[in-house]
TrEMBL record, chain A:
Compartments reported by the entry: Cell membrane
InterPro entries: BP-dep_ABC_trans_perm, MetI-like, MetI-like_sf
CDD domains xrefs: TM_PBP2
Protein name (record): Carbohydrate ABC transporter permease
Origin organism lineage: Bacteria, Bacillati, Actinomycetota, Actinomycetes, Propionibacteriales
Organism annotation: Nocardioides pinisoli
Region (Disordered): 1-23
From TrEMBL, chain B:
ATP-binding listed as a keyword: yes
The protein's name in its UniProt record: ABC transporter ATP-binding protein
Cited Pfam families: ABC_tran, TOBE_2
InterPro entries: AAA+_ATPase (IPR003593), ABC_transporter-like_ATP-bd (IPR003439), ABC_transporter-like_CS (IPR017871), ABC_transpr_MalK/UgpC-like (IPR047641), Mo/tungstate-bd_C_term_dom (IPR008995), NA-bd_OB-fold (IPR012340), P-loop_NTPase (IPR027417), Transp-assoc_OB_typ2 (IPR013611)
Amino acid sequence: MAITIDEAVPVSATHDAPPERRRGGRGRMVVEVVLLTALAVAMLFPVLWMLETSIKENRDVYAVPAKFFGFDLTLAHYKDVFVAPGGGRSDLSGSFLNSVIVAGASTVLATVLGVPAAWAYSRFSMKAKKDQLFFILSTRFMPPVVVVIPIFLMYRSLGLIDSKLGLVLIYAAFNVPFTIWMMKGFVDEVPAEYEDAAMLDGYTRLQAFHKFTLPLLVPGIAATAVFALIFSWNEFVFAIFLTSSQEVRTAPPAIAGLIGGTTVDWGLVAASAVVFALPVLVFAYLVRKHLVAGVTLGAVRR
Amino acid sequence: MAGIEVTSLHKKYPDGTVAVDHVDLSIGDGELFVMLGPSGCGKTTTLRAMAGLERQTSGDIRIGRTLVNDLPPAERDIAMVFQFYALYPHLRTRDNLAFPLRAEGKPEKEVRERVAEVARMMQLERLLDRKPQRLSGGEQQRVALARALVRRPQAFLMDEPLTNLDAELRADVRTEIKHLQAELGTTMVYVTHDQVEGMSLGHRIAILNKGRVEQVGTPLEVYDRPASLFCAAFIGSPPMNLIEVQVAEGALRGAGGLVLAPPDGLPRDRSLVAGVRPEALEVTAPGADRTVPARVVSAEALGDEIIYVVDHGGDSDVRVRMPPTARFAAEEQVGLRHAGGTPPVYDTSTEELVA
């Protein structure tokens, strides 16, 4: 009898422990899910509201209390983004085109300058290399808005105010340091021996870089270019200070310009914001693998 | 085939570091010459200067009778094997082997014949249609060797080619390289930081330290009479025991009473260090003939030998190599005796061999 009791004690103890642990696990999970859900709702609500507003009829946009469900659908706001009220191209569509040109050109420029520079910093020994690299990085330490007035004055004397070229140059100037730093990591990962071997086989150093190293860098270049593109695409401060005319203005200041009149066409604002956000989302999705590679580069030793 | 002459080679990088400090080397035709040294000693930079991948700050390099200072790598008639193999990743083995020949513009018929020949020699036939990522490390290194061979160069330059192989494979490929070099009779310059590799491969070894050549000699010369304290400490595992000695009564006497036979021509009134190989010492029963009393600090049984660390009252413990039949336990009182010939003696201030 005593024996069975003795046996029963540990048995009941082992029976008790796991459910207790499971309950603890489940309780923790519930808390986690609730917290994450709350966070996700808070983060995603503006996006959701933007999407809803962009497809609501105007009277539903201004309805009090606000309508979350059961509003009337319309695509008129999207039409307004691209087509002017009297027919023909709208001002906003021109701004979007400017954004494409400026962001594209500055990204290409930053890549063309930054990739060979990164290669040189990775491969060659040079005087005060670390200091040079630190200097390059340091140009990204301050918020860009700090230099907007000096840049404005310089641009005014150079005649670059209110020109696409001016925006392309300033965005490239901000993207080149970033490109050098990020690409240097990728170049470091490609063994220099490929180039050495190619040089022994009769290629010049630049040919060796072009023929053997560059193809291996393509994923890195894609990731870096997307980051640069996103920066140029989203940039607001320089765009609003350095441009004034409708012909040059890029999308961010143009969209901001929609707000502030006596009446605000929130449907149009929301629709243009959606159109503005889409290209970046698509690009980021296309290169998502490389983005992760770029962000985690150097985290794992070969 | 050709020898390589390096005269007063100097390489200073823009950041101010001197990688190679006025190095002179004379590598004979058909010689397997090893450059050995710790990392950062300038061995790889010297090799890359020979290949033309680095431009020296000053000094001359001759391959055969040609001064190659201003020739690009491809025109120096050399082939190089790298630590990371550097096989072109997008090419199959066959095309990797053919690449240097095609780059030279050889007719396709000759290219095919020579690739087939070298593939037969290196037993790569079944790997010819694979890309590098589908080859094992050892196979990649054999392909890299074959790619060097296919050019039939005047000299081979090898930059730590075995570092990335696992230990077992390393010994195999080492034997293969030695055999290949003997068969072809080609000049080969081999850079390594592994003294076993250097000793087993080289006809002659150059030991480099801090950009300077410390010693050049055959493996046995380098082992028996290291030219400096650095070489003495670098070559041999475990390394030489460096024992501070004084000349007295016609013998070298170290602290703790150890007596060594003195070499001829010892300078007076200088502080001296004798280099004693672990196998030149003997651990005996206490009180045996010509021994000093000592205590076993630790014993490392390696199977084929036992390394005893022994405290004999000197400035530092000494290492003694004994056959595996020796039976002394740690903390046991024993005798220690010098059983070798006259040891090399160094000046502690110049760190160089004096006798």
